[in-house]
Design the sequence.
């Protein structure tokens, strides 16, 4: 009853504004300060990673530029070459600031690539299930359910145990670990849409299944897929770092943030905290900012999904 | 007859971020011992909020902003929570619309009945159980011992509502507020439930407010009727007077839109327009824009007038002849 | 009920069989362990001898059949590195992992549910907002990094507890565990907290969402209308409804705790089967990897089974459906 009153109240309060759904979405998204800041931080991180070769004092993987003399210097020390190492240096004398930006390039590449590929594959499989229906759908969804009963981290671990190290292999492992989340999302939307009367009506009119899937189900999946995509990308970045930290992800020749943290681990007990902590903070900022954006996206997109 | 409940100038408003919703805006009525009053109105008219205000269950952003609610002579509007908690389920009981939603799905019927007794009386569990069993028997539930052991989902809708009624009568309250208790039920079950409730009020001398949107239900049950529109009672009187000779155009419209057997073939009357937006009520009479008898005077808020022992908020009482058929 | 359990058991067996195929073939496709085990200057004959000793010269499907035959008898092959049965190695390391996962689960429930309850009951209070902000961090922070920070703060800087390893064992009721000695508890505190953080956040969110949903439902309003005390409403009516989903999810999370313990064990040098797995992967000790994965699969299937059965016992609605079937 009180809900009813509030509902009428809300309807009355919103004057009929003429704006596109995207404008409204944009307005609602930027209403949240936290999400706006998080988005800004994420974009800055991406920008820093992309521009790394031009804004870092050294290329940490060009042996000619790295000097062992600079090893394990605390933050703010001056390097042999004269520039200041604001974040200190690691065990082999690399400037940490440079190493982190280069590391972010690898981490972001792995995270985004696996996120996009898993999204496309999961979406395709979900649509196939929705399109085919019947037995095929049942089998596909059984496999999805089965896989989702295992945590993604464990699936990824199994995969790297089977596949070995390397950027391509870790991306493959992450895709295999995550496709099912997207497939489930598509299928959930398909279920909702298919139960609506207009689909039944369309079927009665002899409109093809193909058309129903692509004209009705696919567009309705986009919003939830974007939300799942942000959260899963953050988790892919975090997962890659975890695997690399454990030594089963990326090799030393592909030093992502996780590898950097692992390298610093051995120095930690002796009090040289910065070698692990700064890469860790970079990872943290990346993952938390993506998650905050995703969290808010869900809030903004959800009420419309329910309608 | 002494008054069990006396409501004067009750105003319950909801302070939403979109504005103030005056869900109940100046309601007066009195209920005597053992009396059944029908409170009728469309959804959103404030009838349920009136019920919840009496029992002190208005949650933020709503609150009682004005008025007095005297229960057995004691002021209970905005009273202390302890006092209200003591009254609730004890002296004033409530029956809700949907027994599927109100009975807790994971607790057995006996748990939910016994706790209503134990919350107010220091009796043994055994005694409470026996009283619950007897109460179920009184509302016509066969083999009550078995039903007590059941979970709510194992009972039919009518059975669940009987349980709710039995629970409401458990502590022999002075007043029961029934909020659309039969709306979710089949018509045949509906009349049985109404019959049980009527019988029990007679036996126990309990007064009752029967909230509904269905005039037909009230006609066979209540002694008095209050018609609510947009947070106010627009017409109030003895049930026969109001049904036979409605004065307010809204009541006329409501009665006209009840499909009855003797009007077969004729077009049903319908009240024009939509239920009002509670945030932007018209300045004068809230029913004005939908009223076929609207005059210039209706730009003012009509005061409560007493006509032949009935009360009315209208400048243009309808003559009997003009009842729309 | 029995039919239900048998049906679920058959499904579980199928899953285990399928996973054995995937795991075995997956793991056996990569790397060649022979070169890790035979010294670099060994000649061709030595290598051939090693290959036939390890059974690596047979076709892979034959290796699988041998593996399956062995598995049925509880023999998952010998570790290439230790020369011991892989299963024995894993079972030897299992108690440490179980102890860690169990402690983390208890921690998550004991800390997470009360915090979630508070945040759900008082959603607008500052403390609740703090709790929710902390839970977002709990979700986002990578476990291994939090582990590092915990070591740095509590072990290196404050020196309150030891950083790594498992403490002394104690025996209680015939169970040997480091939870029964002070030294053991001081060792397990950090890893257990590290492992629990994610699940604490999860418990907070689940409980809060459940409480908020339940508090708005009619059965809570009805319970209030019966005059029940707030304490009884929260701890009987609300909690009993919420505990069903929370217990289900937390139970399912036990498996993921064991999975995640791989990370925590590596950081805190906890001698469990997770650390064993990482070492085995790095050294291409295939039988141990396969055995670990099989055990984990078995575990997950078992947990799913137990949770399903528990769920059907807890929720009377599921129980009834099954009786009908």
Sequence:
């Amino acid at each position: 009853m009180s809900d009813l009153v509030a509902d009428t109240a809300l309807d009355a309060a919103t004057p009929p504004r003429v704006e596109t759904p995207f404008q409204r979405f944009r307005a609602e998204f930027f209403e949240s300060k936290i999400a706006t800041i998080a988005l800004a931080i994420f974009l800055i991180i991406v920008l820093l990673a992309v521009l790394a070769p031009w804004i870092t004092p050294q290329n940490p993987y060009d042996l000619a530029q790295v000097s062992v003399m600079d090893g394990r210097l605390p933050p703010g020390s001056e390097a042999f070459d004269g520039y200041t190492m604001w974040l200190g240096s690691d065990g082999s004398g690399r400037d940490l600031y440079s190493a982190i930006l280069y590391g972010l390039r690898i981490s972001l590449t792995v995270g985004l690539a696996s996120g996009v590929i898993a999204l496309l594959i999961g979406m395709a499989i979900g649509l196939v299930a929705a399109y085919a229906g019947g037995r095929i759908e049942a089998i596909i969804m059984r496999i999805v359910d089965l896989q989702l009963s295992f945590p993604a981290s464990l699936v990824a671990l199994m995969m790297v145990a089977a596949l070995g190290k390397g950027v391509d292999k870790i991306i493959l492992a992450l895709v295999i670990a995550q496709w099912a989340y997207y497939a489930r999302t598509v299928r959930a939307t398909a279920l909702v849409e298919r139960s609506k009367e207009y689909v039944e009506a369309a079927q009665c009119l002899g409109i093809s299944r193909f058309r129903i899937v692509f004209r009705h189900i696919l567009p309705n999946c986009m919003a939830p897929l974007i939300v799942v995509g942000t959260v899963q990308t953050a988790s892919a970045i975090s997962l890659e770092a975890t695997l690399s930290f454990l030594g089963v992800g990326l090799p030393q020749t592909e030093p992502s943030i996780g590898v950097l943290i692992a390298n610093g681990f051995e120095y930690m007990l002796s009090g040289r905290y910065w070698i692990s902590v700064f890469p860790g903070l970079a990872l943290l900022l990346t993952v938390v900012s993506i998650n905050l954006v995703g969290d808010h996206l869900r809030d903004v997109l959800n009420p419309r999904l329910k309608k | 007859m002494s008054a069990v409940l006396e409501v004067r100038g009750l105003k319950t408003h909801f302070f939403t971020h979109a504005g103030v919703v005056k869900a109940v805006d100046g309601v007066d009525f009195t209920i005597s011992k053992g009396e059944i009053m029908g409170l009728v109105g469309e959804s959103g008219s404030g009838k349920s909020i009136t019920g919840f205000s009496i029992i002190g269950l208005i949650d933020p952003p709503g609150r009682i902003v004005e008025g007095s609610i005297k229960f057995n002579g004691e002021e209970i509007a905005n009273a202390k929570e302890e006092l209200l908690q003591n009254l609730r389920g004890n002296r004033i009981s409530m029956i809700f619309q949907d027994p599927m939603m109100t009975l807790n799905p994971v607790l057995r019927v006996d748990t939910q009945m016994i706790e209503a007794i134990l919350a107010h009386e220091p009796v043994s569990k055994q005694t409470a159980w026996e009283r619950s069993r007897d109460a179920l028997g009184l509302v016509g539930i066969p083999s009550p011992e078995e039903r007590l052991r059941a979970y709510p989902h194992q009972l039919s809708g009518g059975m669940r509502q009987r349980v709710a009624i039995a629970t409401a009568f458990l502590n022999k309250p002075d007043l029961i507020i029934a909020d659309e208790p039969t709306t979710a039920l089949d018509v045949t079950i509906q009349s049985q439930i109404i019959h049980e409730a009527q019988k029990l009020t007679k036996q126990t001398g309990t007064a009752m407010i029967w909230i509904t949107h269905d005039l037909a239900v009230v006609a066979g049950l209540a002694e008095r009727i209050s018609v609510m529109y947009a947070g106010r009672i627009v017409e109030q009187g003895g049930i026969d007077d109001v049904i036979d000779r409605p004065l307010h155009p809204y009541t006329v419209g409501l009665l006209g839109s009840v499909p009855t057997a003797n009007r077969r073939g004729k077009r049903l009357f319908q009240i024009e327009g939509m239920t009002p937006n509670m945030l932007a009520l018209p300045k004068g009479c809230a029913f004005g824009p939908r009223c076929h008898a609207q005059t210039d005077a209706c730009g003012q808020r009509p005061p409560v007038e007493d006509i032949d022992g009935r009360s009315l908020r209208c400048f243009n009482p309808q003559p009997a002849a003009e009842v729309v058929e | 009920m029995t039919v239900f359990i048998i049906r679920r058991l058959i499904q579980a067996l199928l899953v285990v069989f399928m996973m054995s195929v995937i795991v075995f073939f997956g793991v056996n496709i990569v790397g060649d362990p022979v070169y890790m085990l035979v010294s670099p200057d060994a000649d061709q004959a030595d290598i051939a001898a090693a290959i036939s000793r390890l059974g690596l010269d047979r076709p892979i499907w034959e290796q699988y059949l041998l593996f399956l035959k062995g598995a049925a008898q509880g023999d998952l092959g010998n570790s290439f590195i230790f020369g011991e049965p892989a299963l024995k190695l894993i079972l030897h390391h299992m108690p440490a992992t179980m102890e860690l996962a169990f402690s983390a689960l208890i921690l998550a429930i004991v800390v997470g549910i009360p915090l979630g309850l508070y945040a759900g009951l008082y959603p607008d209070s500052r403390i609740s907002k703090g709790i929710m902000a902390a839970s977002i961090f709990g979700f986002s922070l990578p476990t291994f990094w939090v582990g590092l920070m915990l070591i740095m703060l509590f072990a290196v800087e404050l020196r309150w507890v030891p950083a790594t390893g498992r403490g002394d064992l104690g025996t209680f009721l015939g169970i040997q565990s480091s939870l029964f000695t002070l030294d053991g508890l001081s060792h397990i505190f950090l890893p257990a907290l590290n492992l629990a953080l994610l699940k604490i956040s999860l418990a907070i969110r689940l409980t809060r969402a459940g409480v908020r949903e339940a508090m708005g439902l009619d059965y809570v309003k009805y319970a209030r209308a019966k005059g029940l005390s707030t304490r009884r409403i929260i701890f009987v009516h609300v909690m009993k409804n919420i505990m069903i989903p929370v217990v289900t999810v937390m139970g399912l999370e036990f498996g993921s705790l064991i999975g995640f313990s791989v990370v925590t064990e590596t950081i805190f040098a906890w001698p469990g089967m997770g650390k064993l797995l990482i070492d085995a992967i790095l050294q291409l000790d295939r039988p141990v990897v396969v055995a670990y994965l099989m055990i984990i699969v078995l575990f997950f299937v078992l947990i799913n089974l137990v949770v399903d059965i528990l769920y059907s016992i807890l929720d009377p609605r599921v129980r009834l459906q099954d009786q009908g079937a």
Residues 320-325 of chain C have pLDDT under 50 and may be disordered.
